[in-house]
Amino acid sequence: MKQHFVNTKKGSRKFWTSLLKDVTLTISFGKIGTAGRELKKTFRSKGDGKVALVKLIKEKLAKGYVAVESIPIVQAKISQFSPMNHVNFWALIESSLQHKNFKKQGNFIRKQMTLMSEKDVVEYDNIFSTLNNKAYTWHLWAAAYTIQRLFG
Predict the structure, then answer these.
(1) By three-state DSSP, how is residue 33 classified?
(2) SS3 label, residue 45
(3) What is the pLDDT of residues 106-146, one digit of tens each?
(4) C-alpha closest to that of 51 among 25, 80, 78
């Protein structure tokens, strides 16, 4: 039987699942909202696998994980940039810079936004619009014009 655990204490958003099938123990783990990683280990006997699984579960419970019925219910609409505020807005923008062109940056931001709650998407739009409006000044336009004339 597959067992599911999550850790959401102190801002953590992690999942951990285990499945012991015959002599093979499959462990999946990662950040909630992602596919995560999967590891498999084969034991000499099913008993050895059970002992190892019990030990791993005790370790996870000690670290603050709690048992849940299924991960998909917990994974719905959670982003590493939630709740959206100025700090997470700039963290999202900075994370998008790992992609070297604007199209890939935009796709990254769009993907993150699909993981956000509706409230966080609205707040992202509010922050973006406010900053965009603040940047729309004659001084900035004059600087852009001057740069274009000098180097364009």
Answers:
(1) coil
(2) coil
(3) 998 988 888 888 888 999 999 999 999 998 899 999 999 99
(4) 25
